[in-house]
Amino acid sequence: MAVISRGFGARRRESTPDLPPGQFLTTDFPVLSAGPTPEVDTAEWEFLIRTETGDEKKWSWDELQALPQETIDTDIHCVTRWSKLGTTWRGVSLDTLFAEVETSYDFTMVHSYGGYTTNLPLEDLLDGKAWIATEFDGEPLEPEHGGPARLLVPHLYFWKSAKWVRGIVMHGDDDPGFWEQNGYHTYGDPWQEQRYW
Ligand SMILES: Nc1nc2c(c(=O)[nH]1)N[C@H]1C(S)=C(S)[C@@H](COP(=O)(O)O)O[C@H]1N2
Ligand SMILES: [Mo]
């Protein structure tokens, strides 16, 4: 029943156990944006979390910088099949931000400057699984990679890591975001190859 491929990809996977199925290694850093790169000035930058009561917790750039910063060493996996192993980021854990938030909703919609959205279960943003990243490889995050700040959720396909992140709105249901409305899987686990619906 099983068709065993002895092709390049199969051998690659055997020698690189960190590579999810169907992915290829890249050493450069491709840029994938659905639109133009928005100009976001840190003087006006603001990040907010809004709950079902309408309550909004807001952080300015300086307030974000004053929070505990973590270094994140992680692999990233794009649904277009490139993976990058051992990337280094710096940012604030979503656990730190959600410590100030009270909600009984289980889902989130992440919103970006420029209008991009993506949906995630709240539990995928907590327990050390997600950050607001402001540095890549020891340097301020480049605008084309989401600077000044992007979401980093490396255990899911990289479209979930919203660039130019602006806020998170709590949802009662798992409503689809931008790519999820356009054919991408609602969850996006690279190890299960949850690419498209
Ligand atoms: N705001 C925003 N975030 C986004 C995207 C986008 O188009 N807009 N593209 C997503 C996709 S599909 C991927 S693979 C990664 C790419 O990040 P990179 O350009 O830093 O490699 O960003 C994700 N976050
Ligand atoms: Mo992507």
UniProtKB/TrEMBL annotation:
InterPro entries: OxRdtase_Mopterin-bd_dom, OxRdtase_Mopterin-bd_sf. Coiled coil: none annotated. It holds the Pfam family Oxidored_molyb. CDD domains: arch_bact_SO_family_Moco. Residues 1-35 are annotated as: Disordered. It comes from the Bacteria. Residues 35-179 form the Oxidoreductase molybdopterin-binding domain. Gene3D superfamilies: Oxidoreductase, molybdopterin-binding domain. PANTHER family: OXIDOREDUCTASE MOLYBDOPTERIN-BINDING DOMAIN-CONTAINING PROTEIN, PROTEIN-METHIONINE-SULFOXIDE REDUCTASE. This is DMSO/TMAO reductase YedYZ, molybdopterin-dependent catalytic subunit. It comes from Okibacterium fritillariae.
